[in-house]
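User: Predict Phage portal protein's structure from this.
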Amino acid sequence: MGIIRSIFSRLTSAGKYILSPRRPFWSRANTIVNEDNSMKIAAFHRGLIYISSQIAKLPWDVKDINNEVVRGPISNLLNLSPNPEMNAFRWRLCMVQNAIIHGNSYAEIERDGVGRPIALWPLETCRMEVKRDTNNGKLWYVYSDPDKGNVYLEPRDVFHLPNFHTKDGIMGQGIVAYGAEVLGIQIAADNMAAGLFHNSGIPSGVLTHPGKLSDEAYKRLKDSWAEQQGGRKTGSTSLLEEGVKYEPTMVDSTALQFLESRQFGVLEIARFLGLPPTKLFDVTAATYSNVEQSNLEVATDTLDTWATNLEMEADVKILNFRYGGRFTDIDLYSIFRGDMKTRSDYFKSMMSVGAMTPNQIRQREGLPGYGPSGDKYFIATNNFTPADRIDEVIDAEIVQKTKPQQTSTTAPKKELTQQEKDLQDAMVRVLLSGK
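Assistant:
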């Protein structure tokens, strides 16, 4: 039984330890950056959800050495249910989000009596330490179980998904850490904007008096002002006595540049996440052509990279030597399903060179096959020709092109003279008259 499974089986422990404190980071914008307030930044929240949900919904196949899909327990583990308490979509969502935020995400690989994987149990990132034995250099994953204390796990039993920012190739670093300055500026800008709107957009100011106020008069004026302008009364008209004047502290709204700074923050967050701004719903400079191109780039540059990260870990930790020649493959094709032209051109080119059969194309599109004839491979000649007949078609074309031109053996027809033509006409008239 997995160690995290034993934790989840006790309701008192699950609720107590499922939300653990994360290490905060102090930015130069004088703000604390942690998981909780980072998720309140709309651009970061959107980017995190986009990447993790796109990866979570893709088919994750197990294939053999011939690139054929293999159905079985491992395929069910990756595509249906990694453990009895969650489906594959939520498991992948959890793993990718933790890796982006904290730099690393972990899951214990539970095995049966002969070492075959039967479940994947997510582990809390903040409770995991990766240590190396100083005697033999062996790597150990040390998990702080609230009930059992430190539990030592071998690398083969931990599905470890690191972020791409890594110094040693083992541990990743999360965006909350290396993007603390950018996130901190966004948090500070949000706080400043909230403070300004809290005061109804009116900047702070000072009260001046031509004379000197006693302590009692000062306290009375302060309390009176707070009563008239505090809370929901901000911006209301106040009555000032005895020569007291209100002088606002002038704030140049263009100097603050709230919109510009917040928009720049969206671009910076997009760069950290490897996403085009349009995926964070910033369409300031978007056109149809560049949005289409950015969709292709995000699939090949960002999503494919995360998919490879997951595939390689699964190949080593889940398939390993027990499934020789097999590998896992996260199919990115469904990301392009919305682009009909791209799909049509792709399938046409694949079928024309004999790379895909009609039934394989229909399977990709979620359509049923149409019998054995749909399993034939075709090569584009003048028409689509079955691949197993392409040799005879080519041979026939060669024979046709190299066949010598036939020359006529009959003598050219002699031109009749006028006398012969007159005689011929007379004979025809005699035959027609019956004489």
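The first helix runs from residue 3 to 8.
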